[in-house]
Design a protein that fits this description.
single chain; 637 residues; alpha/beta; Rossmann fold; 6-stranded mixed sheet
Length: 637
């Protein structure tokens, strides 16, 4: 039975411009992993600070139950001078480390005890400390510290390095490591995936899924929420609304709830109109008493407000001018700084394709974009740009956005000073920037608003090729959804660097994946397909997929009982080999189809081919394992 750990009642918090939230009620139980979602600026981070005790509410209360320890992920790194990575991480376990040292001291005292009258007290103290350490699995603390730090991307050789020599992003990862190691009963995680690459986020997902604590998680990473959260709570003008399950279920249920609420509103409205019409009709006749009675009943009805479904701006990039069949071509590209970023990298960007560039932080993704754009030179290889290509570039630092001017001036194309004012307003409106905001200064905007202005500027220029570097970084869930729909509907070409797996799944049809220093792989498909390919390869590598003769160890021939048990039903080796040939041929056909530009003219056909290729590869992995088993266990002729 889950234990109630933390609850809030009637929480209200506001600032000069009015309340951020009012009358909020929330309960957190053990084992609950609550994803807290809402638009930028709605008060998610402030709510976490209030729950943690870091900020007092204007009214209401927060209660910690059963002595629960509550801690929030810090956002501003602050470390002791001269400490190492290992020492700072281990500081989260000071209580257990002190108990460990005390246990050792008590053991020494027991071993050298002269006066037996002191033994009962020392043994009781020893038992108490031992129970505490055993309960917290504290006999392998050093291993636990190293496992968490390595999971968050730190290398073993960095363990004894001075904390002050790390970058800001690494220091933030250390803050996360300290919280995970402290393992409070309730963890309040504000954007825990910031500064993490996809591999590290995957490790964090697995770690959190194995923890018994209660959690409240604020995150823009929809794939992370989808894999970790088992309840989603949306914060809005009406308070908190809870949805069971993960992000996918929430995204579906919110629309279903809206449709039900809309039907209830319309039914009530129709009934009210019907009753009012009846009252008007008979009010001055013989049935005026009935009319008065119905009016009293009508006055008692609690009127439903028309429900509003929160949606993102209606983003659109407009028509894309025609280009040649090949938009960009990279031939044998190489680039090296202190280490090799990539070597002999070749690929084509075809008209209308949507390509994602993926890899760990610092692997060279942004450098590759700059080389493709001609802003940086490769050490080797060439980039060829197709005919009539007009590129719009969005960089994650928003250097593409002019400062010191109004939104209207920032969006208006530099080479079109007479660009119509109404067109500017309409365009900004489609990106969710309305009314007086048009004349606001760019410098006064939030990160999300600046992102939308920069994207609107690309739409105003009428580009046919969008090159986007982390475009979802500053956008809320609804704006991300709108951007994805806009890119899917854009008839031009899209090349995008992103760590957002949800975005990559919805938008891209081909990936350029930085897999290791200097190693890059081109994958025809989205992120889910790539993960399936990685899993298939891992499954295949666990068994010998070679079709050469398998030599059975002499001990297994001599002792049939030593043979491993069958995992697959009995089949003749020849039958399995026939199936392998069939699927190998199908795999080659699908790979050939993915090399054919015609495949990508029909999005449905391209997706079908990608799925068939993944299915063939998965089937081959199983068949090879089955073939290996048959070679080993089938009766010899």
């Amino acid at each position: 039975m889950p234990t109630l750990l933390l609850s809030s009642a009637d929480l209200t918090r506001g600032f000069d411009r009015g309340p951020l939230f009012e009358h909020l009620h929330l309960e957190v139980h053990s084992g609950e992993r609550i994803g807290l979602v809402g638009p930028n600026g709605c008060g998610k981070s402030t709510l976490l600070k209030t729950l943690s005790g870091g900020e007092p509410p204007d009214s209401g209360s927060v209660t910690r139950h059963a002595g629960a320890r509550v801690a929030m992920l810090e956002q501003q790194p602050s470390f002791s001078v001269g400490t190492t990575l290992r020492e700072e991480a281990s500081s989260a376990l000071d209580e257990l480390l002190n108990a460990q040292a005390e246990l050792e001291q008590v053991a020494i005292e027991l071993a050298s005890l002269v006066d037996d009258s002191q033994r009962p007290a020392l043994e009781a103290r020893y038992d108490r400390l031992h129970t505490l350490l055993a309960h917290n699995d504290a006999f392998h603390l050093e291993h636990r510290v190293e496992a968490v730090l390595q999971g968050l991307g730190f290398h073993p050789r960095e363990m004894d390095r001075d904390v002050e020599t790390f970058s800001g992003g690494q220091k933030n990862r250390l803050l996360l490591a300290r919280l995970l190691l402290a393992a409070p009963d309730v963890m309040l995680l504000d954007e825990p995936t910031n500064h993490l690459d996809i591999a590290t986020v995957s490790w964090l997902e697995g770690h959190l899924l194995n923890q018994p604590q209660g959690m409240v998680i604020v995150s823009h990473d929809r794939a992370f929420l989808d894999r970790v959260a088992n309840r989603i709570v949306e914060i809005g003008p009406g308070g908190l609304e809870s949805y069971p399950g993960n992000f996918t279920q929430y995204w579906r249920l919110r629309r279903e709830r809206h449709e039900l609420a809309l039907k209830a509103y319309e039914r009530q409205r129709e009934e009210i109109i019907r009753q009012e019409e009846y009252i008007r009709r008979v009010n001055y006749g013989q049935l005026h008493k009935q009319a008065a009675s119905r009016q009293k009943q009508l006055d008692k009805i609690e009127r439903l407000g028309r429900p509003v479904l929160r949606e993102g701006p209606r983003i659109a990039f407009g028509e894309a001018g025609h280009t040649g069949e090949t938009v960009l071509e990279a031939v044998e590209l190489g680039k090296k700084y202190a280490t090799t970023l990539f070597r002999k990298l070749s690929f084509q960007v075809r008209r209308g394709s949507r390509i994602g560039v993926v890899g760990p932080n610092g692997c060279g993704k942004s450098t590759l974009l700059k080389i493709l754009l001609g802003e940086e030179k490769p050490d080797a290889g060439v980039v060829r740009v197709g005919a009539h290509v007009k590129v719009g570039y969005y960089d994650q630092q928003l250097a593409c956005l002019p400062t010191g001017c109004s939104l209207a001036d920032a969006v208006r194309p530099p080479d079109q000073p007479t660009y119509p004012e109404q067109k500017v307003r309409d365009l900004l409106g489609s990106f969710g920037l309305l009314g007086a905001q048009v004349n606001q200064m760019v410098d006064d905007l939030s990160g999300g608003e600046k992102s939308r202005v920069a994207l609107a500027g690309l739409a105003a220029r009428g580009v046919n090729t969008l090159v986007l570097d982390e475009p979802t970084n500053h956008l809320d869930l609804w704006a991300c959804d709108s951007l994805e729909e806009a890119l899917k509907g854009f008839e031009g070409t899209v090349l995008v660097v992103s760590h957002d797996r949800w975005f990559l799944n919805r938008v891209t049809e081909m990936l350029i994946v930085f897999t290791a220093p200097g190693e890059v792989e081109v994958v025809h498909g989205n992120w889910d397909l790539y993960e399936r390919l990685v899993a298939t390869r891992a499954a295949a590598s666990r068994g010998d997929t070679s079709r050469d003769t398998v030599t059975t160890p002499r001990s297994e021939v001599a002792d049939p009982a030593a043979k491993r048990k069958r995992k697959f039903p009995f089949r003749k080796v020849e039958e399995i080999e026939a199936d392998i040939d069939k699927y190998e041929e199908e795999k080659l056909d699908m790979e050939a189809a993915l090399e054919d530009p015609e495949t990508y003219r029909d999005g449905r056909r391209a997706l079908e081919v990608q799925e068939k290729l993944a299915d063939a590869q998965e089937m081959l992995a199983r068949l090879y394992a089955h073939w290996e088993e048959a070679m080993e266990l089938n009766p010899k002729k």
